[in-house]
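pasting input
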Amino acid sequence: MEKQVVDGLREVFQSGRSRPLQYRKQQLRALHRLITEHQADIEQSLKQDLNRNTYNTSLFELIGIESDIKLAESDLADWAGPRHVKKNLNIASDDVYIKPEPLGVVLIIGPWNYPWATVLQPLIGAIAAGNAAVVKPSELSEHSARLMNELLPLYLDKEMYQVVTGGVPETQELLKQRFDHIFYTGNSTVGKLVMEAAARHLTPVTLELGGKSPCYIDKNCDIAVACRRITWGKFANCGQTCIAPDYILCEPSVQDRIVKEIQKTLQEFYQEDPKSSPDYCRIINTRHFDRVLALMNECTIALGGESDRSQCYIAPTVLKDVLPHFKIMQEEIFGPLLPIVTVNGLSEAINFINTREKPLALYVFSSDKTVIKRMLTETTSGGVTVNDVLMHYTVNTLPFGGVGNSGMGAYHGRHTFDQLSHHRSCLIKSFAMESLNDARYPPLTAARLSKAKFFMQHHLCSCSGVCVWAVIATILAIGLLVGLIVVLIQKTPV
Amino acid sequence: MSSPPSPSPTRWFKALRRTRIEDVCLKSGAAACAEVLKRARAAFRAGRTAQDSFRLAQLEALVRMLMEHECDFVDALGRDLHKPRFETVMSELMTVKSEALHTISNLKKWMEVQRIERSWATAFDECLVVNEPLGVVLIIGNWTSPLQLCLVPLVGAIAAGNCVIISPSETCTHTAELLHRLIPAYLDNECFHSVVAAAHEIPEMIDLKFDHVFFFGDKENGIKVAQAAARTLARVTLVLSGKNPCYVDSQCDINTTARRITWARFHNAGQSAVAPDYILCHVDAKDNLLQALRCALLQFYGTDPRESRSFGRMVNEEIFNKAKDQLWRSGKVFIGGQVNDMERYIAPTVLTEVVESDPIMQQDVFGPILPILTVQDAEEAVAFINSREKPLCVYAYSSNDKAISKIMNETSSGSFCLNDSVLQSVMVGMPFGGVGASGMGSYHGRYSFDAFSHKKSCLLRTTRIECMAYLRYPPYEDRNLSLVSLASSLNLRSQGWCTIL
């Protein structure tokens, strides 16, 4: 069945239906209508999947999707047009440019934590770039998957964009097929399997994976504000966010203050009992609930720790004096547990981060510019937000993606379009100037070599473009001057 | 006649030095690689490659290496591929030097932090993209252009601040040995290493964990490289050879076309991944094209190309036998066809009456053989090209706008060149790479720098404007949501509604 789907899509793609920009814009507008007309249904599906509040759904998913659609619609002509390359003397008479082209059939595999944004944002790029697409939403967020399966064919051209639902067997079957690009959001273990399956067909991949995103709180910063922002970012969606601050690094002297501030903030956000707050989510299922709960085992609970398996509820929890070898520090938490690891200063924090896998996000809170500079230059991560959390995800002019174990490739805004296009180099020459080519033809004599080297030297000078303009400008200036003098002489009364 | 010279110590030492490449590396490729990888990682972690001054010094040293040892490179490539001096200097040394000098003059600019344009919505924030090195890069070269395909990516990897391990192709033994000897003499000994490994050892090497793998080669090995890279989540750039089609229209300058195709197809004795692999010739142009090709060949290589100093030889027995086999079992020989086993020489050959099922149309051609197929028009050419895998290059020779537009817009390939061949693959300003079965990723100039960098997005916020952020915090209220939605709809560019947040 999966093979039929992919073959069908490829045939329709090859008919050229998605090449005209008009068609692509039409599909994007239809997608926009889907989001606006069914906003309530989407919010309902997320409430059923994750107990997600409607506000959070808009904030974290719908606004981002709408923003990307509007950008794609307004800028598509610019993105899809040929991109001219700087010419130099050697090829002044030629035309040289890069032409973005669609790849073909793209597979988008979504996760369960933000099932709409992580599937529709890549889909927007796929549509804009002129590809056909197969969308495979996660079966764990089953209400969202069901709704997506229902709605997408009602709005989009179902011969170019199809939804395939199901679990692991269906995904494995899909991965056996040949795609022209696979876009996967999820964890590193499955990420490797996706990449290996893709490698069999030489399919390029974009992997948005996870990891442990560190959050360093410097002793010189507004700790109250820092803790509010961290609390917001960590416990929204019950900690199930790939770029949530996974753990805190701070000096021992500020640990207690941090715990106090977080406690204050939690009270403000979720009141006395987060379990009864309409704004606090749940863990996706019991398997993950058990996994997250087990991570607390060796730790000292500073705040929270309550749980209720029947509701998959885990209270917002802060753990203090966590040691590097604890289980909680060996895997991505993806839950509402916030461990604090103490370090003696910035250098130790940097060292700690660098001995681990490259994370998807890194956070640093400080009012000291040198601290920020050191963190930025001496560590690496997919992205960074300074003095806040999560927010670099929202700026769609910034490429969002991982590095190393946290993934490869990037997207959002124009970057999705670029990621899902092939950038074909085009050199357009004329038949003229053939005598210049004599230099490269056999018989290969020393004289020809010198001539060829001469032309290559001009090729080597990257400021030759400026020289050409300088020469032209000088000639024009002299011409104008001469013209002016002639006019003045003529006007001079005899 | 004097008596044979006694074995002096000097001669004895010289004889020892002229050992085979396998003896130079006493350990296997993977074992040697593990050792140097450890050193390269330590050097990278110590921050040796961070400064632009270090990277510039290495690039300048590379240029010096090429200039000071031009004769040695010419000699090595002459022995490996019977490459004429002209070709070595032009297509190998000058290409790398050009790349290095372009990079040297632009490096500071490329390394600069990119500031993302601030809109009113992000007025209080700073949005930056920072270019970071990836770590340790593995570059696997190829025998068709043993210097260029190793050193051009090396330039980009050095510029981006990585440590690098290069693996020059063992098929070109003299070139590999020369590089193996020269690299430590010119480049930093902790950051840059050379390891020679056989094709089957490469997946094992990749399993040692690199941050990026660059591979130029055939599809079968490309798949193995991609699978090995997947196991450690290493990024890859794959440039894979295939069959590059070349369409010749009835409306074109046939003499210039023939000369340009002849140059492209027969330089390096046809051992090139970017040369036109086969011609799809318009039925009306066929006879003229054949005559023009004959003229061009005569002009370039004389009546007996075997005597010409401008014509190369097959690199080894395996490639020679394969090319011979393709020649004898495909179509009809129109020009050339002579072979000489001892010299591994195959004359520049043009085949006609070739059909799709012939061996030469089923496999990549690495030899001076040019098959010509006939098509009725550009439409038939497009259908033929699209029935096969996406190639590295598509070429077309025509002055008819409609035909040009058809070939360009209705096919897909890594790159495209109109009215010439090969040049688009060596230009510093253009990305060169494949798509689909011809690979992924691209390189050259700035694109190499980007390929071997991680672009880290940074958003720098202030903690002073906390009052604005309250809208996003729980407890959630409908009033807040309306405000946020309004703000985001007002922002036409939709660059970031994060100021409100």
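fyi The CA atoms of residues 32 and 264 of chain B lie 38 Å apart.
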